[in-house]
Design brief:
Blueprint (H helix, E strand, L loop, with lengths): L1 H8 L2 E5 L4 H12 L3 E6 L2 H15 L3 E5 L7 H8 L5 E6 L15 H29 L2 E8 L10 H21 L4 E8 L5 H6 L12 H11 L5 E3 L2 H10 L4 H16 L12
Parallel strand pairs: 1-2, 1-4, 2-3, 4-5, 5-6, 6-7
This protein binds NADP nicotinamide-adenine-dinucleotide phosphate (NAP).
NADP nicotinamide-adenine-dinucleotide phosphate (NAP) binds next to helix 2, strand 5 and helix 7.
Length: about 280
């Protein structure tokens, strides 16, 4: 698997939200596969420590960008700081919600912050890096979503809605970019033992079916290029199949054909595996 990841997505990957949890696990797996890494998150000391470890252990090159993905000018800064690199893989990992409350019981700013993190952020970075990948005819974009994206519900309504945006965006990118040689995919994650989830809810450690970050990252990378949606973990796949009972690829093809028909655009079917 290692050689093929480097071949398909090297020489550089960018992990957004790389300083701990699932993002750190992606960084470790990609470094072991020989990809150079741009590590992005807010906490510079953690990024620098991880980067030094990965350089020493795997002999890869690294670059750290300490930036808040919700800040104004984030995408411009990332563009500037990576202008000299060939980024063949974008993994947009950051995006958990911390805490639960009814929409109207939290300030609007908190909801708009989630929109910036889970909608504006992935769209801006996918738009920038995806354009270069399409020109090169190779590359990969993975957006992390959640089982929570598969339905509306109380207490995390804005989170669920923003994670749905990532799912639907990744599916559309999958259909548009696959013919150009670029793999886009949504990785749907269920309960996973990450520092940010444990930090917001210590009892989370006992949650049934809890996955480890390394398992999630390994399953996601193994599915890259095979289909539009990957769900990490057998237990989570069972839940996802109940919430998303229709196969995704035929549904995406049908909706794409309908849009092509309405707007007089060319249409084509894209083949992909189901999760
Ligand atoms: N853990 C779960 O149970 C679970 C369940 C379903 C879905 N997911 C999805 O899995 C992904 C990872 O979740 P997670 O639990 O590891 O927590 P997370 O808070 O989404 O991600 C943690 C990483 O993202 C960085 N980060 C968070 N906010 C950021 C911001 N505004 N700007 C830049 N970097 C930021 C953190 O570093 P800094 O603090 O240094 O910035 C850290 O490296 C998310 O997309 C989440 O929705 C997780």
């Amino acid at each position: 698997m290692s050689a093929s990841l480097l071949e398909r997505y090297g020489p550089w990957a960018l992990v957004g939200g790389a300083s701990d949890g699932i993002g750190e696990a992606f960084a470790r797996e990609l470094a072991a596969a020989g990809l150079n890494l741009v590590l992005l998150a807010r906490r510079a000391p953690l990024l620098n420590e991880l980067a030094a470890d990965l350089r020493q252990t795997h002999g890869i090159a690294t670059r750290c960008i300490a930036v808040d993905l919700t800040s104004d000018g984030m995408a411009d800064r990332v563009r500037r700081e990576t202008a000299d690199l060939e980024i063949g893989l974008l993994i947009y990992n950051a995006g958990a919600t911390h805490g639960a409350a009814h929409v109207l019981d939290k300030p609007l700013e908190a909801a708009l912050g989630l929109v910036a993190l889970n909608c504006q952020g992935p769209l801006s970075l996918a738009h920038h890096f995806g354009g270069a990948m399409r020109e090169r005819g190779r590359g990969g974009i993975m957006l992390l979503s959640s089982l929570a994206a598969l339905s509306g519900g109380s207490y995390t309504a804005v989170y669920n809605a923003t994670k749905s945006f990532e799912l639907i965006l990744a599916e559309g990118l999958w259909h548009e970019l696959k013919p150009a040689g670029v793999d886009a995919m949504c990785l749907i994650v269920g309960a996973t033992r990450t520092p940010s989830m444990l930090g917001s809810m210590p009892s989370f450690a006992d949650y049934p079916g809890l996955m480890m970050p390394a398992q999630v990252a390994a399953e996601g990378l193994a599915f890259m290029g095979r289909g539009p949606v990957c769900v990490a973990g057998a237990h989570n796949r069972d839940i996802a199949r109940r919430l998303l009972p229709n196969p995704r690829a035929p549904q995406i093809n049908a909706l794409s054909a309908a849009s092509a028909g309405i707007f007089g655009k060319p249409g084509q079917d894209v083949a992909g595996e189901e999760f």
